[in-house]
Amino acid sequence: MEGKSGAADYIVLNCELDVEIRNEDIDDIMVSALEGGINYWCRKVEVKSGCLGEYASDQISRDGKLVLYDAEENKSYTLDKGKFIEGLEKYIASGNTGCIERETDAFGLYTGKLNIDTCSIDAGAADCIIQYALFGDVIYG
To answer: Which of 38, 55, 106, 128 is 20 to 30 A from 141 (CA-CA)?
Structure first.
């Protein structure tokens, strides 16, 4: 934006963040999605090609696949780890950075690593992540 003198009032920074996500984090987000987040548009979830964990929410982190069935249309969508990661990246890139935490050591000093704080991802946020993963955007709710 330019001021009266023609000079910009601000500069937009394009910052790229390297955020680490653990398999346990993926499982936690999937629990939030499957136990309330996506239930209003997804009528059924099916584990594809054998169960790799104890629960459906354990599949994605273990390189498994889930088939999600649309509640209103006769459509199904396959979710895998690659799509999940893309969805999480789009979720964060769209301004949802509150789920990122700075890792600290035993003395409380920043280690230089950024992690996902799954306590900051509720059912609604998990729903958005899954929608970004499957549709490239949030199309429901």
So the answer is: 55
Q: What is the C-alpha to C-alpha distance for residues 64 and 140, in angstroms, rounded to an integer?
A: 25
CB-based contact 85:68 (threshold 8 Å): no
Residue 62 lies in a domain: yes
User: DSSP assignment, residue 140?
Assistant: -
Torsion sign, CA atoms 22, 27, 28, 30: positive
For the entire predicted model, the pTM comes to: 0.85
Q: The domain containing residue 71 runs over which residues?
A: 19-135
Model confidence pLDDT, tens digit, residues 97-133: 888 888 888 999 998 888 889 999 999 999 999 999 9
Contacts 24+ apart (CB under 8 A), 76-82: 77/134, 77/135, 78/48, 79/130, 79/133, 79/134, 81/26
**Interatomic CA distance for residues 137 and 15, integer angstroms:** 21
